[in-house]
């Protein structure tokens, strides 16, 4: 361990593993350490199923009916990948796809008026959906045509609307889009966490909606992908990539001190050993004095013997409950996977319900989502604190990630990764040479 590195990465959560891989591919000499014996950190996959019960301090064991416990790979923080989104581009750019297999998620749904509806995935579904009335469908079609033809660099496609300046609320108003359609567009398609986006320049939301539908066009049923055998394959894939490019990994290695000279990080100690470095990247648990608590997330992982009702028996799906539908400030997220993604025994499903905590009774806040699941055989609930760094890290060269939010997709995770990369290297990540993923390979 006594050596000099360009970068030391602390923690093997997905964000840290992605950054380790990106830095290694960029020619940096990387040392990656974790106090745990396993990859994934708070975003780990638990296998066999016994590990799930142990993790949640359950005294009982999983019942024998769940069959081969090693068939289960339960993600503590399951999230779907947008097929045309940033994480898939990162996977392709860095070559990690060689270690992974993906399968499409069967459907994307939104909650409205006590029921769930499929988010239209094509023009035929848009025509037949009961999410909107006939006149609203016509208005929405014109809005989507504008979005899909929109080019931020070509003002001839703007139809007289300056999306760089005017707010998204004005864009909806221009096309006569009603409140209900705004809700599912902003939350289930553009994937905003709250309604703040309505007052911000419309360009970001337009590009998010465009990304959603471009992702559907690429793979069909929904815009989402999920790796076979669960998300635990992702950090390990990036770890293997880092190792190929010379990165050194040390699991089960305690960090006893982060060493500074003149206010800038110079190394990391583990007992009597010290590795020197130019910068450190890590998750908040390694930097208690350099982070602030900004909230909490409550998650319930549920085992069921049936798909989520009213999803056309989907073997995998996402449901978003917009905040306004249930009188909240933040959305509730639901996702479901099954043996089709090699994460459960045949005939069983795992569902996650998650949201940002707003009250003193977090589990009760999940009720609208839990009510959608039907009968639940097992339920594991956790409340996790959310931490963010106190500064941007440029001065002391310590770059700290944020904890994982309540969303069931990876777009906010990637935003954090790319932001850290830009601050640490002095420039943005270049996606220009990225090729598209072929699921049939």
TrEMBL record:
Alphabetical UniProt keywords: Cytoplasm, GTPase activation
Record carries keyword Chaperone: no
Main location: cytoplasm
Superkingdom assignment: Eukaryota
Cellular location(s): Cytoplasm
Pfam families per record: GDI (PF00996)
BP GO annotations: protein transport; small GTPase-mediated signal transduction; vesicle-mediated transport
Keyword Zinc-finger on entry: no
GO molecular function annotations of the record: GTPase activator activity; Rab GDP-dissociation inhibitor activity
GO cellular component, one term: cytoplasm
InterPro entries: FAD/NAD-bd_sf, GDP_dissociation_inhibitor, RabGDI
Record-stated family: Belongs to the Rab GDI family.
Functional description taken from the UniProt entry: Regulates the GDP/GTP exchange reaction of most RAB proteins by inhibiting the dissociation of GDP from them, and the subsequent binding of GTP.
Protein name: Rab GDP dissociation inhibitor
Organism of this sequence: Capitella teleta (Polychaete worm)
């Amino acid at each position: 361990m006594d050596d000099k590195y360009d970068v030391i990465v602390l923690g093997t959560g997905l964000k840290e593993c992605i950054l380790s891989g990106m830095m290694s591919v960029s020619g940096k000499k990387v040392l990656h350490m974790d106090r745990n014996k396993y990859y994934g950190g708070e975003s780990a996959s638990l296998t066999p199923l016994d590990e799930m019960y142990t993790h949640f301090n359950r005294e009982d064991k999983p019942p024998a009916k769940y069959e081969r416990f090693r068939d289960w790979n339960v993600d503590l923080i399951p999230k779907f990948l947008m097929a045309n989104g940033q994480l898939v581009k990162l996977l392709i750019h860095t070559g990690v796809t060689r270690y992974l297999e993906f399968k499409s998620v069967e459907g994307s749904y939104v909650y409205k008026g006590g029921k769930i509806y499929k988010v239209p995935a094509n023009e035929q579904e848009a025509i037949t959906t009961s999410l909107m009335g006939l006149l609203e469908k016509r208005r929405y079609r014109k809005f989507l045509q504008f979005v899909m033809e929109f080019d931020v660099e070509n003002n001839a496609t703007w139809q007289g609307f300056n999306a760089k300046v005017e707010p998204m609320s004005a864009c909806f108003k221009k096309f006569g889009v009603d409140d209900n359609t705004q809700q599912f567009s902003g939350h289930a398609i553009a994937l905003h966490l709250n309604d703040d986006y309505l007052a911000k320049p419309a360009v970001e939301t337009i590009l998010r909606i465009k990304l959603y539908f471009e992702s559907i066009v690429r793979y069909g049923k929904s815009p989402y992908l999920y790796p076979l055998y669960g998300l635990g394959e992702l950090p390990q894939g990036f770890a293997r990539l880092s190792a190929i490019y010379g990165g050194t990994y040390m699991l089960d290695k305690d960090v006893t001190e982060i060493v500074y000279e003149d206010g800038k990080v110079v190394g990391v100690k583990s007992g009597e050993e010290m590795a020197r470095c130019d910068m450190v990247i890590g998750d908040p648990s390694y930097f208690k004095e350099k982070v602030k608590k900004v909230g909490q997330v409550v998650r319930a992982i549920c085992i069921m013997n049936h798909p989520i009702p009213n999803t056309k028996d989907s073997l995998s799906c996402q449901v978003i409950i917009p905040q306004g539908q249930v009188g909240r400030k933040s959305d509730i997220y639901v996702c479901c996977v099954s043996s089709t993604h090699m994460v459960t025994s045949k005939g069983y499903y795992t569902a996650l319900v998650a949201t940002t905590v707003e009250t003193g009774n977090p589990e009760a806040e999940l009720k609208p989502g839990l009510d959608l699941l039907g009968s639940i055989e097992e339920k594991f609930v956790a409340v996790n604190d959310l931490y963010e760094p106190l500064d941007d890290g440029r001065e002391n060269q310590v770059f700290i990630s944020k904890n994982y939010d309540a969303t069931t997709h990876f777009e906010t995770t990637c935003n954090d990764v790319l932001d850290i990369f830009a601050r640490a290297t002095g420039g943005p990540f270049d996606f220009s040479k990225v090729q598209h993923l072929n699921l049939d390979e």
